[in-house]
Design goal:
By secondary structure, the chain is an alpha+beta fold. The protein has 18 helices and 10 strands. It is about 50% helix and about 10% strand. β6 and β7 form a beta hairpin.
């Protein structure tokens, strides 16, 4: 977005995108530059009465951004759709993690289905792949949300384990947990459902409600997984706790041991929350997937009966009121996808425009920073109206994001 700015208000760090006169004949070498010196400020004050400052190209320094913010209202604003900021870095990070995750899913499936004669070797291979994966996700917790959005949409044990792992490591990182504990929740999440391989496929894939006896069989899977892992003395005991107890709930309604309250450590509950969230936002044989916001609402409803209140609140804060990848309506009826949000300004994220007010695809796609739209008093047209289920408007968010990231 370009903001008309009086020259006496200019400061170092601001990006001058346009002058109130032609660039020809000025001492500036480039048509667009960040103000870096007092001389440049003096020259602008001598030559111009006002200039246009680009907020997205200006310094990200908080003081500079706040200064721009406070001056926006009442200024002349030119709405400009920008290219997706940080897209290249995100693309390369996801490509790296995607290769590792695909390898991890294969290794994990082999381990889950292996017999006693070869399962230790498969576990060793799985842990080696997962370690690299965890390190890359831990370097940027937000990446884990993107990995979940872009993952294959199926409910297989391996894919679900991968999705839960990326979420758990990212969430643990956002909480500030150290690298060792992030590794514990990552490995625990990756291995948490391996016992499902012993449950008959016709029960795992049953499209309707399970009978009481069928559910009793399902409830055996954490015990099966723990038994398979217990002979591997190299595993951190906390990993075994996650595997055995990820279905335990604070009110004692969980399984297999009916643990309650403080008997369930935070690192177990963290994986449990991520496990439930991923299950909600994935198509299951017995129900369709929920939107991210609907999944968060359902987890919130369970509240303190099932999970630690502080962890739930932190999870919601991390995912956001308008989660990454959500399809939203703007107030002018155009459609956009949430692609970035500031932790302190969740109500006004950055969006990728995908459909205009006439229902036509926007190509090339560009982003718009809704925080500045709000500050400029333009939210009546460009403000965020609310989240929409992509299925109701026949828009495939994942495919659009894969196109933008060039990952297809």
């Amino acid at each position: 977005m370009k903001i008309q700015y009086r020259v006496e208000q200019l400061e170092k760090g601001m990006y001058v995108a346009e002058l109130d006169r032609p660039w020809v004949g000025t001492p500036f070498m480039f048509q667009g530059f960040i103000i870096e010196s007092d001389d440049e400020l003096a020259q602008l004050k001598q030559l111009c009465k006002h200039v246009f400052v680009d907020d997205l190209k200006s310094s990200t320094d908080l003081k500079t951004q706040n200064k721009l913010h406070s001056a926006v209202r009442g200024s002349t604003i030119t709405i400009e759709f920008q290219e997706w900021k940080g897209l290249e870095k995100l693309r390369e990070t996801i490509k790296t993690i995607k290769r590792q995750s695909e390898d991890a899913v294969v290794r994990l499936t082999q381990f889950a289905e292996s017999d006693s004669s070869d399962h230790r070797e498969h576990l060793r291979d799985t842990r080696e792949v997962v370690t690299h994966l965890i390190n890359d996700i831990a370097a940027d917790p937000k990446t884990s949300q993107w990995m979940r959005i872009l993952s294959e949409q199926d409910a297989t044990m391996g894919r679900h384990a991968m999705n839960t792992t990326t979420l758990a490591v990212g969430f643990a990182g956002a909480l500030g947990w150290d690298a060792a504990l992030q590794a514990v929740v990552g490995e625990g999440a990756m291995l948490h459902d391996i016992g499902m391989a012993k449950i008959p496929k016709q029960i795992r894939d049953k499209p309707g409600a399970l009978s009481r006896n069928e559910f009793k069989l399902i409830k055996l899977h954490p015990g099966y997984a723990a038994a398979k892992l217990e002979s591997n003395t190299g595993l951190d005991p906390r990993i075994l706790e996650i595997v055995r107890h990820h279905h335990e709930r604070l009110d004692g309604s969980g399984y297999p041991d009916g643990l309650q309250g403080d008997m369930i450590p935070d690192y177990v509950q963290l994986v449990s929350i991520c496990d439930v969230y991923d299950s909600y936002i994935t198509d299951q044989c017995y129900r369709g997937k929920l939107t991210s916001s609907a999944a968060v609402a359902r987890i919130t409803k369970r509240g303190t009966r099932h999970f630690n209140k502080d962890l739930i609140e932190q999870f919601i804060r991390w995912i956001g009121i308008y989660p990454l990848g959500s399809l939203v309506y703007l107030r002018n009826n155009s459609l956009a996808i949430i692609v970035a949000s500031d932790e302190t300004k969740r109500l006004n994220p950055t969006v990728l425009l995908v459909q205009d007010t006439d229902g036509k695809a926007v190509l090339p796609r560009r982003t718009l920073n809704l925080e500045f739209i709000e500050s400029a008093g333009l939210s009546a047209q460009w403000g965020l109206r609310g989240i929409v289920d992509p299925g109701t408007v026949k828009i495939d968010v994942r495919q659009i994001l894969l196109q933008e990231l060039q990952l297809r």
